[in-house]
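pipeline/complex-builder :: batch 7 item 3
reading input block
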Amino acid sequence: MKKLVMFLVAATGGYLHQQSVVRSAAGEIRNNEEVIRISASTFEFKPSEITVRKGMPVVLELTSKDRHHGFKLSAFELRVDIKPGVDEKVRFVPDKIGKFTFLCDVFCGDGHEDMSGTIRVIE
Amino acid sequence: MNDLMNRRDLLKLAGMGVAVFVSGATMRASGTEQKMNDSFYFVQLSDTHWGFNGPNINPDSRGTLKKAVAAVNSLDAQPDFIVFTGDLTQTTDDPKIRRDRMAEFRDIVSQLKVKAVRFMAGEHDASLDRGEAYQEFFGDLHYTFDHNAIHFIVLDNVSDPMAAVGEKQLRWLQSDLKQLNKDARIVVLTHRPLFDLAPDWDWATRDGAAVIESLLEHQNVTVLYGHIHQEHHHMTGHIAHHAARSLMWALPEPGSVPKKAQIPWNAAEPYRGLGFRNVEAHVPQARYEIEEFPILRG
């Protein structure tokens, strides 16, 4: 419950809020969603280049292999903590075309500054 | 004032003086019982990253800080005090190496002629152990001090690895501000930008807006910070924010390239983009002149 509240606070305003972005309690995947698994470890995301389609619901399944990281995709007002042993699911529907940066926003060590990736949204 | 003029003449002769930035602020009636007739200056050094090793970024990583210390010591008129705005050391997972680097850094800066030195942490110093080692060597993570009727507030936005000041420190700040007149001269020293300079580059403070909101109640506030490894000036309302250069590597202008990356060393222009600054405070006018200086060679 606490995590859900924190997530909704981070996603206030803008498209995501209007589209009622929620984390399902059981974390189940819905039929029309594209699932993308992203693992975080010092100091990289795998994969770091992701392509999705505009208007198609996306679920990002985020895991950490080693330590506390963060995932921040400010273009879509998404952020979540990623901690070892806790799988995080983040849903959103890309509503704009372009190339957008995501990054680790929890300082995780020497190399933290390089820990980022991009999401490309295409038609 | 003669001393200041002599200092400038000397710097000009040495080819060091580069630019002067004037932070606009209007004359205010005195709101404090402390003396306000003085002009004085202090030096800001930042992002020394002692322990960094990257020959293609800075082949003089073991010498740049020492050159900066020598440059400050060579100033004709010595500053009233010196501040280091964070990232004193390069981060490491190894607690022993972290402490070794802090000890080496402390030994080097002990060579400064001016012994009034104020430190603050950067995320490289404090984020991995919540400031435990930093406090052993340099003291509190947030504190205040007063100098010639200017109230200096050192804010910690790094010991929380999520880059937040936090509720507890915010309440401490608000309590401190309540004791000051609305026209008090206030200088905030911190590491990260308090405003959203470039969130996609991690150049922000998560709850910086709350800090700024608290500061906006006062008329004469200036923020000096580091973290972004370049000179940068920005206004949030009537509050001026000035970022300082690094003493280890330079970074590109915010948003100027797709991915933030250290600027490689240029042998044709060694130490380009690195430097320190003098901040001359004109207390009655609540005005600050900032002079940027490059690293001296040899």
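note: Chain A has a mean pLDDT of 82.
queue -> next item
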